Amino acid sequence: MKDELIKGPEVDPERASLLPGMGFFIPESIYHEQKEKELQVSLEGARAVVITDSDADGLACAALVQEMDHGAICVPTNPYELEGCFMQVAEWIGQGADVYICDLCPDSIDEIKHGLEKLYEKARFILWCDHHRWEEEIYDFVHSMGIQIELGESSKECAADVVFRVLDNDFSKEMKELVKVTRDHDLWLCEDERSGYLADFAIWTGGDEYIDIIREYGANLPKEVIAFVNEKREEKEDLIRRAVDRAEYIEIGGLNVGITYGRCSQNEVADEVRDRGADVCLIIKPTGGVSIRGSEKFEKCHELARVFEGGGHPRAAGCMPIEFLDLFQYADHWINQGEETKKMLLEALKMIARGENRL
E strands, the chain, where? Predict the structure, then answer.
């Protein structure tokens, strides 16, 4: 597919905002083959590895581990790819390696069981640090394997807080401040301007580059990085504005529900939609996923996500309501701006408002 069909001066920005980013159109087989080769090269015989979410919080966790163990390899992933990631890491790390899993909450036992068992066979120990809310049965299963689990309170700590506390290393004041600023964004406090720059830079750069920068500069990113982020933010702000303008507002069970569609930065869109009176914001992505953001009036985001086998926090969660079986379904999703997903979400929200447990 030609790049200019998705991104470029000839592409209408409004139409582009209705489509996924360019990476979506790379077949998974090609993407995974490339990532697998890269992983194999970096992990061959590794003695320590950090499996972590690829956002600023997850990468800050990796940076903390690397401050303590300079040879630790960072493997960014996401909750939907845990099984495959565990299997790959288990295949290539050295016997008796130290494994740290950070800022990742499994959605079910079946999605991690075989990979985690393989990983446990190779590892000297596994430490799992997170701040999401875990299902009791998942926690019990992981703990029964002899894996150390350290969970923070999701409303007070980010994952980097948990890692900082558990490792109890002689971290520098710069790293301590980095954790504080990372928490500012990850818990949506938004009291420190630097946290937004960290979050955006983590999105727009590779994991290793981000870690190298924050280990050298902490939360105070250098001028050239700030300039890079500001340039990228012009497109980001345009996508945010379009998603906010697209939002509809619906009353359900005494809640004002804001629902929108588009490729955008979910937290910022949710902030603006809530500023316009919404108690809960539902953001349908062109990729098919959904971001759910709540408020003081709605702290059941994780319950809504679980209806569709997703998960997260009381005020922030995510899920994938539809299993797309072919490109025609995706085409319909893009053309109709997630209409089928919207109907499913609203029905599920009505169910939760009625106090029911399932559709």
Answer: 48-53, 73-77, 97-102, 123-130, 148-151, 248-252, 255-261, 280-284, 290-293, 311-312, 316-319
Residue 31 belongs to a domain: no
Contact 119, 91 (CB under 8 A): no
Q: How far apart are CA 187 and CA 106, in angstroms?
A: 20
Query: Which pLDDT tens digits describe the chain residue by residue (359 residues)?
Result: 566 666 666 778 898 899 998 888 878 778 778 878 888 888 988 999 999 999 999 999 999 999 999 889 999 998 888 999 999 999 999 999 999 999 999 989 999 999 999 999 999 999 999 999 899 999 999 999 999 999 999 889 999 999 999 998 999 999 999 999 999 999 989 899 999 999 999 999 989 999 999 999 999 999 999 999 999 999 889 999 999 999 999 999 999 999 999 999 898 999 999 999 999 999 999 999 999 999 999 999 999 999 998 988 899 999 999 999 899 999 999 999 999 999 999 999 999 988 875 54
CA distance 216 to 152: 27
Q: What is the DSSP letter of 81?
A: G
Identify whether residues 181 and 88 lie together within a single domain. Answer: yes
**Domain CATH number, residue 94:** 3.40.50.720
> What is this structure's pTM?
0.72
